[in-house]
Amino acid sequence: MIEMPFNPELEVAKGSGIIANGAITAFLDTALGAAAYDQFETYKKIVTLDLRVDYFEKPAAFSSVIVKTRCLKITEQAVFVQGDAFSKDETTPIAHAVAVFSYEEMTTSVGGTSKDSDGKSSGDVGQIL
Predict the structure, then answer these.
(1) Within a domain: 126
(2) Which runs of E-coded beta strand occur in the chain?
(3) Contact, 93 vs 56, CB < 8 A?
(4) Is residue 127 part of a domain?
(5) 61 part of a folded domain
(6) Which of 17, 27, 99, 98 has its CA nearest to residue 66?
(7) Does residue 107 sit in helix, strand or coil?
(8) CB–CB of 64/5 below 8 Å?
(9) Is residue 116 assigned to a domain?
(10) How far apart are CA 119 and CA 62, in angstroms?
(11) CA–CA separation, 129 and 7 (whole Å)
(12) 111 CB neighbour count, 10 Å cutoff
């Protein structure tokens, strides 16, 4: 579970107290991505391949949005997760999301050479200026 506190900068209309759907969608993507990332013992690059959000109702005015996530399945190339967003009561979600994330080993660039999380070199990767 992760919480996004109410912030007036996220309101759909100034003074309404209602967090905009775009902010909730971005928060769901972040929460679901964190759930996918949490499935691994080593660092992985996680990329959103697909995200579907169904909205049921607006959040309670001036309240936080909380997301509860669950990992459904991990394959050799993807992680499937889902989550529910709610504002006051977990039994009445305001939105439901399903996402698919791809993943791969993290690499770092040192002196023009790419190294994976085990420190193995994989050749020239160029330079960033």
Answers:
(1) no
(2) 2-4, 44-55, 65-74, 78-86, 95-105, 107-110, 113-116, 121-124
(3) yes
(4) no
(5) yes
(6) 27
(7) strand
(8) yes
(9) yes
(10) 48
(11) 37
(12) 8
What residue numbers bound the domain in which 85 lies? 2-120
pTM of the model: 0.80
- What is d(CA 127, CA 73) in angstroms, rounded to the nearest whole number? 37
Given a cut of 70, whether residue 9 has pLDDT beyond it is: yes
CATH of the domain at 65: 3.10.129.10
> Residue 111: its pLDDT value, please?
58
Contacts of 54 (CB under 8 A, 6+ apart): 95, 96, 97
Q: How far are the Cα atoms of 113, 115, 117, 127 from residue 120, in angstroms, in the given order?
A: 10, 5, 8, 19
For 39-84, the pLDDT digits (tens) are 999 999 999 999 999 999 999 999 999 999 999 999 999 999 999 9
Order the strands of the 2-4 sheet from edge to edge.
2-4, 65-74, 78-86, 95-105, 44-55
User: Rounded to an integer, what distance in angstroms lies between the CA atom of residue 19 and that of residue 15?
Assistant: 11
